[in-house]
Amino acid sequence: MDKYESDTFGVLNAANYDQEHDPGTTAASVDCLAEFCQDADAVLELAIGTGRVALPLAARGIRIHGIDASPAMLEVLHNKPGSDQLTTSIADMADFDLPQKFDFAYLIFNTLFNLKTQAAQVSCLQHVARHLNPGGRFLIETIVPDLSGFHDGQYVKTDELSFDDLRIEAATHDPISQRIECQRVQFTQAGVTLKPFVYRYAWPAEIDLMAQLAGLRLEQRWGDWQRGAFTGTSPMHVSLYRK
């Protein structure tokens, strides 16, 4: 999918993002992040999107600067109440330069995987480290990759099936690059809608090594936003790094 660029996801999904991409963990993630933000003079959110997490944090008095590669996502954010309490910039999270440093930064909801190569993911962590004050922390949330649904490097899944609506997801998997290319297809009486999505997954140990290359060391890892234990069967992880 050579046409898939850093702002493609936002162009295709901004209008319906809040309705179609609710992970069900917002309250827990905001509570957890607020504890790390409360002593920080300045906080950076990478891929702030439509403000699902930043807006409730800002309502608690936390000063947040958010970056996002998608003007469309930021437009949705700025049409929401409370957005005037946030500072935002259009920027690629793998290559950004802001005029300030931060005590705490975070990148959640698997968004690290939106960067399509390992080099881009390493670059993201390096740019975060450059923008952190000494002793600053960086929190990442991602799934633990589960490839069990793939057979012969591909899968097809039905997401919605009704009298007048069919939504399917088809994907291919390249284990060499750890890259998955998806096409989400919706059939309705009005026509067909295509929403492609590309991501490059990474295992927790690989993320630790990429962080180490950037000058960040793992401080703690949990298996959920309530900071439960991370185990071999955890489907996700919340990992905290320190500069």
* Rg, nearest Å: 18 Å
User: What is the element string, with H for helices and E for strands?
Assistant: HHHEHEHEEHEEEEEHEE
As a percent range, the share of helical residues equals: 10-25%
Distance between the termini: 35 Å
Low-confidence stretches: none
Biggest sheet layout: 7 strands, mixed
Instruction: State the shape.
Output: globular
Number of helices: 7
What percentage of the residues does DSSP assign to strands (E)?
25-35%
Total beta strands: 11
| Protein structure class | alpha/beta
User: In order across it, which strands form the biggest sheet?
Assistant: 3-2-1-4-5-11-10
Q: Which whole number gives the mean pLDDT?
A: 96
Write the layout of secondary structure elements.
Layout: H1 8-13, H2 17-20, H3 26-37, E1 43-46, H4 54-58, E2 64-68, H5 71-78, E3 87-90, E4 102-107, H6 118-130, E5 132-143, E6 154-162, E7 165-174, E8 179-188, E9 191-200, H7 204-213, E10 217-222, E11 236-242
Parallel strand pairs: 1-2, 1-4, 2-3, 4-5
Antiparallel strand pairs: 5-11, 6-7, 7-8, 8-9, 10-11
Key phrases:
243 residues; alpha/beta; 7-stranded mixed sheet; 7 helices; 34% strand
What does the model show?
This protein is an alpha/beta fold and 243 residues long. Helices cover 24% and strands 34% of the residues. The protein has helices at residues 8-13, 17-20, 26-37, 54-58, 71-78, 118-130, 204-213, and strands at residues 43-46, 64-68, 87-90, 102-107, 132-143, 154-162, 165-174, 179-188, 191-200, 217-222, 236-242. A seven-stranded mixed sheet has the order 3-2-1-4-5-11-10. Helix 4 links the parallel strand 1 (43-46) and strand 2 (64-68). The longest helix is centred in the middle third of the chain and has 13 residues, at 118-130. It is globular.
